[in-house]
Design brief:
415 residues, alpha+beta, BirA Bifunctional Protein, domain 2, Rossmann fold, 2 domains, 8-stranded mixed sheet, 21% strand, binds adenosine-5'-triphosphate, binds magnesium ion, aminoacyl-trna synthetase, aa-tRNA-synth_II, histidine-tRNA ligase activity, ATP-binding, HisRS/HisZ
């Protein structure tokens, strides 16, 4: 039992062990494998950035910047923020680290992100994202590439069937501003019925009302004008090229004509992979094209597209992965046998065999430990065995036992 005065975790921040940790690791390992299949280079970016990186990228009026960031002054008085997402920091690095020379740059990463939100199922204050981006590519092929990566990842995680890709275009700037005016008119005419948050957004950014989580707004959102009526020929050609590419790649998608993303930097393609298995936290992976972002940070015009996925949400959807099991557990009895076992253990591990040692309690306890670890074999060593240079290898599934010379153990376990 925790003592009343022992330190507690910060609200909304989790520590994981056992199946939950295994799920998390499985999501990350699958992501790393699929990332390589698609040729996205691994990058690392800081957890802490100047606050301006996020304020300028995401937009001052977004929920993330206005309410959710962990921002503070460091000891030299600089304003810094724990990253609430990856994209802005990657765009910052693209500019400050000379990554522009690698354009078009396909990169991926994962790690913690921080948002001061109300913790609930699938929503934490420290959470973790997988992230994939292509910087410096205006072609619809880049959209198809990031969406295909997302689709294959979700399939390989085994959630392909329960998750739907909802796709929209937000058009080019001309499209977006015409649509924005029409949305403003629509929402202004229903102003009194809107949630307080959305009344707030009305004049600052009416597009964001479409992304509202307040039930009161939903019927008003459902009758809002769709973007299709405002798409320029260029924007609609671009979207047609993206959807044709997705069809060719065998990525299934559903049109969601009122889908917008919470951040200001999106243009053209926007998408969310959604499940109904997680209640209100149903979006597991989301992203889109952000052609204006690098420019917003003071760089050259750099079309780009990417997505982020919540590792915790994906972890909740997958089947529990098989726990790690050692191939063998050494069961020594007596001082000389323990010495020999330490040597054998080191040798097996160096040869790539997952092995462990039971070193507590009597023989019975040690054998029980080998069984509960799920080992394939117990390697039993006593004084006699050390004398003869052989061990008793017991197959824990069949109960069969035989003597194996120390230098034949590796071969016996690999067979
Ligand atoms: P939501 O609508 O659920 O708040 P969002 O639009 O704020 O999501 P994004 O900024 O697109 O989310 O982040 C990408 C993904 O990161 C989300 O789809 C989700 O899986 C995950 N995510 C975002 N915020 C959290 C959080 N507080 N806790 C856990 N996962 C999160
Ligand atoms: Mg959010």
């Amino acid at each position: 039992m925790a003592q009343i005065n022992t330190p507690q975790p910060v609200r909304g921040m989790q520590s994981l062990l056992g199946e939950e940790a295994d799920r998390f690791a499985h999501v990350v390992a699958t992501f790393e494998r699929v990332r390589r299949l698609f040729g996205f280079r691994r990058v690392e970016v800081p957890v802490l950035e100047p606050t301006a990186v996020f304020a300028r990228s995401l937009g001052e009026t977004t929920d993330v910047v206005s309410k959710e960031m962990y921002s503070f002054e460091d000891r030299s008085g600089d304003n810094v923020t724990l990253r609430p997402e990856f994209t802005a920091g990657i765009a910052r690095a693209y500019l400050s680290e000379g990554w522009q020379q690698f354009t078009p740059l396909k990169v991926a990463t994962h790690g913690p992100a921080f948002r001061y939100e109300r913790p609930q199922k699938g929503r934490f204050r420290q959470f973790h994202q997988l992230d994939a981006e292509i910087l410096g590519a205006a072609e619809p092929q880049a959209d198809v590439e990031v969406l295909s990566f997302a689709d294959q990842l979700l399939r390989e995680l085994g959630v392909g069937g329960t998750v739907v890709c909802k796709l929209n275009t937000l058009g080019d700037p001309a499209t977006r501003s015409a649509w924005r005016d029409a949305l403003h008119e629509h929402f202004a005419s229903r102003r009194a019925d809107l949630s307080e948050d959305s009344r707030d957004r009305l004049d600052r950014n009416p597009v964001r009302i479409l992304d509202s989580k307040a039930h009161a707004d939903w019927p008003i959102v459902d009758s809002a004008p769709v973007i299709d009526d405002f798409l320029t020929a260029e924007a609609s050609d671009f979207f047609a090229a993206v959807t044709a590419g997705l069809d060719a790649a065998g990525v299934t998608w559903e049109r969601a004509p009122r889908l917008v993303r919470g951040l200001d930097y999106y243009r053209h393609t926007a998408f969310e992979f959604v499940t109904d298995a997680l209640g209100a936290q149903g979006t597991v992976l989301a992203g889109g094209r952000y052609d204006g972002l690098v420019e917003q940070l003071g760089g050259p015009h750099t079309p780009a597209i990417g997505w982020a996925a919540g590792i915790e949400r994906l972890s909740m959807l997958i089947d529990a992965p098989a726990p790690d099991r050692p191939t063998a557990v050494l069961v020594p009895l007596g001082g000389p046998a323990e010495q020999a076992a330490i040597h054998i253990l080191a040798d097996l591990r160096r040869k790539g065999i997952a092995a462990d040692m039971a070193w507590r309690g009597n023989m019975k306890k040690r054998m029980a430990k080998a069984a509960s670890a799920g080992a394939g074999f117990a390697i039993i060593l006593g004084d006699d065995e050390v004398g003869s240079g052989t061990a008793q290898v017991k197959n824990l599934a069949t109960g069969e036992q035989r003597a194996v010379a120390f230098d034949g153990l590796h071969a016996a376990l690999s067979a």
